[in-house]
């Protein structure tokens, strides 16, 4: 943890999130109180010693919520995928009403991103563990309903964390909009072929990286998109256009808008200039509740500690709230 101001703190075996500040070593001889306080930012009222202590408290709390059983995400991912696949023949042969298929498929499409999100951060199974294959396959099957390969989702999402709210390097910055209605509109507009929106930003991020993983993501995206279009065309050609629409095309459109709004716009707006550790994301109150907003009300906790599972971020936030308030985080919403 050489990039942290508390260099002598005991090591933690989880992702510590973005750096708190530039490296600053706290001399032990200065702890007498005679040395002047050294603010780390001009507008920061806390001296470096107070910040060190608060960061220690914060990490001790975060450690309580890392790890734990993740089998629920595995079960949800594979059962959800199986139900989604079953919607196709059930709708084609009239067993399930198209509206029911639409609702179920859309829900699974959105929920799939939640399970995949955990896999992106290796929360299902860490590298080197005997269950590592589950992490990969949870990610793979979870993103099929939105016709995006796990490789592309992971590469670009980790770039989002690395360059959060940077207008040039954050692949998700294109979701920024001045208000709720404009944000919902942009979730659709950014998917249009000649717009410099989400997919073009993702493609550019991979090209700029130029790593084997990024190149693989670009190739797999082409394959998945071709499979998606071929499936829709084949079903429509054989008289199942309605089934194709309610099982995949429309759920994908609705699901992507839901994901882009609640995962990208709502917890990050306004983005401009907010790149610090404690203002990369915000605490907000959703009108549709914590569950249906994909548990994004406390998305700041995820940015601080990506290893805390999605279902535990709210509990972690409640315990960490006094510490965050001392750091200047606006916690008035929850």
Automatic annotation (TrEMBL):
Question: Mind naming one GO cellular-component term on file for this protein?
Answer: membrane
The record's section on InterPro entries has: FA_desaturase_dom (IPR005804), Fatty_acid_desaturase (IPR012171)
In its UniProt record, a GO molecular function of this protein is: oxidoreductase activity, acting on paired donors, with oxidation of a pair of donors resulting in the reduction of molecular oxygen to two molecules of water
> What sequence ranges are listed for the domain Fatty acid desaturase?
98-329
Q: Which GO terms describe its biological process?
A: lipid biosynthetic process
Q: Which domain of life, per UniProt?
A: Bacteria
Task: Identify the stretch(es) annotated as Disordered.
Answer: 1-38
**According to the UniProt entry, which residue ranges have a biased composition of type Basic and acidic residues?**
1-13
Instruction: Give the residue spans that cross the bilayer.
Output: 70-90, 96-116, 226-250
Q: Where does this protein have coiled-coil stretches?
A: none
Q: Keyword set for this entry?
A: Membrane, Transmembrane, Transmembrane helix
Question: What PANTHER family does its record include?
Answer: DELTA(5) FATTY ACID DESATURASE C-RELATED (PTHR19353:SF19), FATTY ACID DESATURASE 2 (PTHR19353)
Q: What protein name does the entry list?
A: Beta-carotene hydroxylase
């Amino acid at each position: 943890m050489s990039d942290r101001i508390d260099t002598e703190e005991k090591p933690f075996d989880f992702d510590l999130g973005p750096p708190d500040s530039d490296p600053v070593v706290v001399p032990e001889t200065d702890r007498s109180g005679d040395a002047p306080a050294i603010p780390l930012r001009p507008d920061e009222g806390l001296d470096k010693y107070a910040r060190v202590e608060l960061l220690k408290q914060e990490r001790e709390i975060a450690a309580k919520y890392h790890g734990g059983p993740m089998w629920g995400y595995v079960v949800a991912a594979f059962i959800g995928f199986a139900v989604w696949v079953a919607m196709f023949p059930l709708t084609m042969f009239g067993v399930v009403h198209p509206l029911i298929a639409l609702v179920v498929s859309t829900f699974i499409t959105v929920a799939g991103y939640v399970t995949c999100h955990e896999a992106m951060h290796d929360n299902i199974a860490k590298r080197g563990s005997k269950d590592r294959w589950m992490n990969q396959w949870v990610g793979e099957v979870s993103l099929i309903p939105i016709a995006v390969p796990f490789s592309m989702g992971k590469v670009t999402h980790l770039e989002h964390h690395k360059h959060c709210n940077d207008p040039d390097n954050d692949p998700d910055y294109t979701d920024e909009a001045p208000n709720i209605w404009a944000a919902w509109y942009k979730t659709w507009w950014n998917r249009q072929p000649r717009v410099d929106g989400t997919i073009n930003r993702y493609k550019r991020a991979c090209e700029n990286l130029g790593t084997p993983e990024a190149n693989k993501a670009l190739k797999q995206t082409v394959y998945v998109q071709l499979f998606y279009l071929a499936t829709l065309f084949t079903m429509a050609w054989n008289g199942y256009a309605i089934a194709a629409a309610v099982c995949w095309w429309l759920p994908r459109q609705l699901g992507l808008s839901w994901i882009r709004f609640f995962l990208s716009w709502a917890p990050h707006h306004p983005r401009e200039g907010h790149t610090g550790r404690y203002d990369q994301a915000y605490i907000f109150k959703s009108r549709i509740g914590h569950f249906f907003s994909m548990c994004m009300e406390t998305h700041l906790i995820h940015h601080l500690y990506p290893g805390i599972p999605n279902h535990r971020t709210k509990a972690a936030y409640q315990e960490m709230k006094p510490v965050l308030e001392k750091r200047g985080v606006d916690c008035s919403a929850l």
